[in-house]
Amino acid sequence: MTDDKLLTEAELELMNALWDVGSGTVRDVQAALPPGRAYTTVSTILRILVDKGFAVATPEGRAHRYAPAVTRADYQERSVRHLVGHVFDGDALALARHLVSGEVSADQLEALRRLVDARLGR
After folding, report:
1. CB of 64 closer than 8 Å to CB of 25
2. What is the rounded CA–CA span in Å between residue 41 and residue 81?
3. What angle do CA 84, 85, 86 make, to 5 degrees?
4. What are 56's strand-pairing partners?
């Protein structure tokens, strides 16, 4: 799996369910999704996630048990690197500027200040 490979919207929805479940069969993952996802669709997307290296499948009777092959935190980091590199032309400060100029509460800004202070050793 290459570092720049990202998930489609449908794949990410299933990965979020798989991260929440931890590991499970197609039915387990399907149950963690909003109603309306067909079993065959969930099964197909889980197989795609395995093929892409985001999940692993182990035989369990006649079914398979699926589990994440990457952590949510690792995928979030990969996504942010991609966002900074491709949308903000490698300028992480531009992303931060955009985030804090948006709808960020005073509490969130204060939490961000504490994170920056900790990173700077203050």
Report:
1. yes
2. 30
3. 100
4. 67
